[in-house]
């Protein structure tokens, strides 16, 4: 499932390429026909993410809510203006949590992913860019405009020069401002939305009043927004915290440190497009980590392998039907 950093990146792409433009909206798949008819001919006013949910405002106080769920993704095509809010002017991107390192943006991983370039310096390119859990450049497959419909597209937003296709979301619906406010009110704090100090207090209070395992609470979007399976495992390891510890028993200073860690990790994820959770890598180690997913995490996807810190075999178990990776020694 796409985690918070991906949804923030998608919202920024919508913001940069659609705000102020009138869209042609359609539902080639047919499942969102009525909603698309409402959006058709309206102008985009705003796009924002809160946790794993994205909200796009149109004219007449009409909102689109999208939750990608497990399989949803956006494909962007056309003369895409890439987001530059976190890129340097010369096209190179520094690392938020890497000291003294400046890494070139042209890094492809072993799955063909170039997430640094996908959110780099501003440039007009005729490209297709897939935005979901991993941001994948699909290449310049065709100059046909509008681009052909590929697969089951729930919603297509089209302007004269940019196209966004939504596939496989869990939720895609038109809402009123009141309905949007009600959804957001049920979500836990997001480090990139509102005051981080207020968010920290909400997070700590929400965890401390629950007699539920911290490994479950981190995935509860009413407690904290945006954390998924990867960030959960990595944050628990970085905090040296047993995932089965009841929330009410976790030390307050540990919870505050975890919130601040989430602030950093989410910002880094939005910047790089990768869930980079290892700190203080030298330039070569960082390049390897960006190129190979197995080299950028402490415990995630490392079941049966030795812990990078103590050598103990990493454990894999199920928690709420999701895979949980942790070190039984470092997180005892």
UniProtKB/TrEMBL annotation:
Pfam families (UniProt xref): Fapy_DNA_glyco, H2TH, zf-FPG_IleRS
GO molecular function: class I DNA-(apurinic or apyrimidinic site) endonuclease activity; damaged DNA binding; oxidized pyrimidine nucleobase lesion DNA N-glycosylase activity; zinc ion binding
Superkingdom in the source lineage: Bacteria
Keywords: DNA damage, DNA repair, DNA-binding, Glycosidase, Hydrolase, Lyase, Metal-binding, Multifunctional enzyme, Zinc, Zinc-finger
PROSITE patterns (UniProt xref): FPG_CAT, ZF_FPG_2
Domain Formamidopyrimidine-DNA glycosylase catalytic: 2-100
Residues of the FPG-type domain: 298-332
Cofactor annotation: Zn(2+)
EC number(s) per entry: 4.2.99.18
Top EC class, one word: lyase
InterPro entries found in the cross-reference section: FPG_cat, FPG_N, H2TH_FPG, Ribosomal_uS13-like_H2TH, Znf_DNA_glyclase/AP_lyase, Znf_FPG/IleRS
Entry keyword Zinc-finger: yes
A biological-process GO annotation: base-excision repair
This protein's record includes keyword DNA damage: yes
Family under the similarity heading: Belongs to the FPG family.
Descriptive protein name: DNA-(apurinic or apyrimidinic site) lyase
Species annotation: Microbacterium mitrae
């Amino acid at each position: 499932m796409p985690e918070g950093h991906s949804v923030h990146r998608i919202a920024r792409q919508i913001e940069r390429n659609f705000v102020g433009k009138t869209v042609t909206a359609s539902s080639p798949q047919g499942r969102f026909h009525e909603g698309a008819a409402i959006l058709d001919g309206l102008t985009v006013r705003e796009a924002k993410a809160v946790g794993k949910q994205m909200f796009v405002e149109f004219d007449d106080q009409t909102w689109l809510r999208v939750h990608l769920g497990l399989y949803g993704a956006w494909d962007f095509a056309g003369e895409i203006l890439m987001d530059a809010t976190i890129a340097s002017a010369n096209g190179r991107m520094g690392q938020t949590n890497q000291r003294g390192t400046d890494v070139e943006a042209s890094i492809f991983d072993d799955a063909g992913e170039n997430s640094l370039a996908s959110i780099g310096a501003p440039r007009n390119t005729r490209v297709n860019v897939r935005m979901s859990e991993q941001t994948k450049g699909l290449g310049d497959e065709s100059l046909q405009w509008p681009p052909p419909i590929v697969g089951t597209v729930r919603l297509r937003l089209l302007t004269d020069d940019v196209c966004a296709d939504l596939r496989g979301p869990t939720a895609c619906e038109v809402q009123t401002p009141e309905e949007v406010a009600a959804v957001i009110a049920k979500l836990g704090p997001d480090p990139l939305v509102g005051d981080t100090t207020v968010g920290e207090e909400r997070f700590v209070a929400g965890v401390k009043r629950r007699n539920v395992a911290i490994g479950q609470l981190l995935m509860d979007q009413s407690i904290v927004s945006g954390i998924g399976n990867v960030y959960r495992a990595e944050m628990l390891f970085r905090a040296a915290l047993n995932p089965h510890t009841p929330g009410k028993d976790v030390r307050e200073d540990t919870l505050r440190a975890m919130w601040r860690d989430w602030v950093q990790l989410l910002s880094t994820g939005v910047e790089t497009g990768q869930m980079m959770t290892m700190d203080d890598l030298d330039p070569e180690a960082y390049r390897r980590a960006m190129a190979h997913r197995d080299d950028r995490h402490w415990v995630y996807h490392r079941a049966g392998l030795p812990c990078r810190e103590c050598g103990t075999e990493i454990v894999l178990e199920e928690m709420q039907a999701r895979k949980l990776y942790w070190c039984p020694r470092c997180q005892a």
